[in-house]
């Protein structure tokens, strides 16, 4: 029997209760299809050609190596993977940057927050080189009061200490802060730290179906938060 998918827990808050909005990048503001395709298909194909492997064998080997460093700073460190795989990972990302896309309604939502006078911070585990590539392609950087990579904080967002250090850097009141992210372990770590308002992004990739969280209020698109 196929397990029943969780039904949507709808967000229930008022914008008057929130001063600061923390927004993840990949899968939240940007379509995660680019990242999924890049790491699961494109990099293995290039790696296979250089190492005389079949694409399937290269994919199997690389997925295993990815899993070993998930939820750590190494997972998103492009310099680490360039060294480990003998590839120029930033250059490979630039080759297919036409796949980098903003999710529907994101610009409308960012404009809405700006008109509401909210502090808006982009908070991402993405490496600084990835961030630069994506901000150059999407041109969304001007909407943010601050842009913080986990490498600057020194911890990944999956670790509650990340939020403690982030608060020291940007000075938010966790009782009046909202975080939107597509990764449940990140939301769980933020909840453990005490961030009051948490929103799960239920459709991080345009090529995948909506999948609501059983724990957190969820949205498929940001127009659901324009109220």
TrEMBL record:
GO terms for cellular component: cytosol. InterPro entries: HAD-like_hydrolase_sf, HAD-like_sf, HAD_sf. It comes from the Bacteria. The keyword Ion transport does not apply. Keywords: Hydrolase. GO terms for molecular function: phosphoglycolate phosphatase activity. CDD domains: HAD_like. Transmembrane segments: none annotated. The keyword Protein biosynthesis does not apply. Pfam families: Hydrolase. GO terms for biological process: DNA repair. This is Putative hydrolase of the HAD superfamily.
């Amino acid at each position: 029997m196929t397990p029943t998918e969780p039904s949507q827990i709808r967000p229930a808050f008022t914008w008057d209760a929130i001063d600061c909005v923390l927004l993840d990048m990949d899968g939240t503001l940007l379509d995660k299809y680019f990242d999924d395709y890049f790491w699961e298909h494109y990099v293995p194909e290039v790696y296979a050609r250089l190492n005389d492997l079949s694409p399937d064998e290269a994919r199997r080997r690389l997925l295993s190596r990815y899993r070993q460093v998930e939820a750590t700073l190494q997972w998103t460190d492009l310099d680490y993977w360039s060294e480990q795989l003998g590839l120029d990972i930033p250059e490979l990302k630039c080759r297919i940057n036409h796949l980098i896309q903003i999710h529907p309604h994101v610009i409308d939502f960012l404009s809405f927050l700006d008109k509401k006078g909210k502090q808006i911070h982009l908070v991402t585990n993405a490496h600084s080189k990835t961030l630069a590539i994506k901000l150059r392609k999407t041109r969304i950087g001007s909407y943010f009061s601050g842009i913080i990579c986990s490498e600057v904080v020194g911890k990944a967002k999956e670790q509650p200490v990340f939020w403690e250090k982030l608060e020291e850097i940007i000075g938010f009141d966790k009782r009046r802060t909202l975080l939107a992210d597509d990764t449940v372990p990140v939301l769980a770590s933020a909840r453990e730290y005490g961030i009051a308002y948490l929103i799960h992004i239920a459709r991080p990739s345009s090529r995948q179906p909506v999948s609501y969280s059983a724990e957190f209020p969820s949205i498929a698109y940001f127009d659901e938060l324009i109220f």
